[in-house]
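Hi support team,

I submitted a single chain yesterday and got back a structure, but I'm not sure I'm reading the token output correctly. Could someone confirm the output below corresponds to the sequence I sent? I've pasted both exactly as they appear in my results page.

Thanks,
R.
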Amino acid sequence: MSQATDEKLCQQLVDECTDAIVVSDRRGVITLWNQGAQRIFGFTADEALGESLDLFIPENQRPRHWEGYYKVMETGVTGYATRLLAAPAICKDGGRISTEFSMTLLRDEGGKVEAVAAVVRDVTERWQKEKALRTRIAELENARE
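Hi R., thanks for writing in. Yes, this is the structure output for that exact sequence:
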């Protein structure tokens, strides 16, 4: 395949992916927001691009998030390069969802982290089912005692 074909396919992958693909710069400003992000969070690309990640980070999670985010930007090291991170998120309608995401550090030619890409999946339905199962198990264990 030609480089132009490869680039076109890569762009199609980003655009059409049903998972959210969100890229943010060193300051945490959103620079890429795909259709999957719009589907999951409800914000259009026009509403999200140029905004802070605070757009979908719950207020009570922000201090911890930014502490970790800036540390990763400075050190270029993350414990989540090969593991999924679970975190709540806020949608445009104000509702909360449960998400899991992977992170990829994007570096310049010198190796300095320039941005972070996250592939985010809404796992709310699974999380609710697991919570109901945990509750039921606890009820059954309590009834047995």
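A quick pointer for reading it: The chain has five helices and five strands. Let us know if anything else looks off.

Best,
Support desk
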